[in-house]
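re the bet — no i am not wrong, look at it urself. input seq straight from the record:
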Amino acid sequence: MNPIGADGYEHHPLLDKHVRDVASRGEGVLVAVTHELHSHGTVRIAHIRPASGVEWTTSAENIQAARP
C-alpha cells in the first residue's frame, strides 16, 4: 500500500495519469484513491474521471496504466 496523506488520500503512483479499470474496461484519469472502513476491513477505492467528466469508482486493485 502507498502512503496516506494527512488529508486521508493515498499517494498512488498513477494519480493524475490515464488509467484503465479492468472491471469495467473504462478509461480516464485517476483523480484520487480513498479508503473506506467496512466491517471486514479497509477497502481502497479509486476515483476515475473520463473525458465525459462523469466520475466513477472501482477497487484500487482494478486499475492499471492505460496504453497510449
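see?? The first strand starts at residue 18 and ends at 21. told u. also The chain has no helices and five strands. so pay up
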